[in-house]
Model the fold of this input.
Amino acid sequence: MTHRREFIKKSALASIALGMGFDTYSSPFPNLNLKVGACDWSIEHSSDPNGLAVAKEIGLDGLQVNLGNFDNQLHLRQKSIQQEYLQKSKALGIPISSLAIGELNSYPYKSDPQTEQWVSDSIEVAENMGLGVILLPFFNKNDLRDDSKGKSEVISKLKNIAPKAEKTGVILGIESYLSAAEHLEIIEAVGSNSVKIYYDFRNSADAGHPIYEEIPLLAKDYICEIHIKENGKLLGEGDLDWAKIGELLSKSDYIGSGWMQIEWSTPKGADILKAYQHNLAFVNKNLNPA
Done:
């Protein structure tokens, strides 16, 4: 595999093109045709099947769900909880779009042995529920920045679990503060098409990465799903250029899982329902124009 070399080569070509004044992304972009969901933890229903009803009230196409928390023993691993979700999803007409293991931020995959079983079990959950993407977050205690030992441990664990993900057709998406090149180093080291990047534009920008350069280099081949957010602000009230992001994704032939998930983007004290209806309308206007 040559992910990193390809990235460096593409980066150089992109820099040359920009330096010569070429604007690859200036023409009107076609509809991305991505379905719009939200993270259940962002609508105050983390690992709660009742979040599906809130998603329907907002008008979303679906809901990304958290596997559970330590106190409920990541309860979506239980067949009965899976069935409850699936039955409510069918009754409401609101699909479950993807899965996340939020507890990895508190119980780090890079160092806590029990998390290997969590990730393994989550693949079975995804298979049982017909889900194609599992978000593995690397924040807080699980942050990989300036942690070469942590990266090595994660690579080793992903190498071990990747064959199971490949067999079931599930993608494990790494979401972190790492740069594009650092993500690709991990992907190359693991050597599996079942390990990709779960890209969050706000997180990457906050970490100081050039997101408008990273998007066209990563979108088509390496990003499995995306988060849309402005922390503590409604979409459109932050400093990210969402129309440009949509244009870059479209021109890069981005498909991913076919979903984008709105996360947070709620000012302190704001009504969740009204905030997310605003955010949904913003996404449909600026990233998914009709």
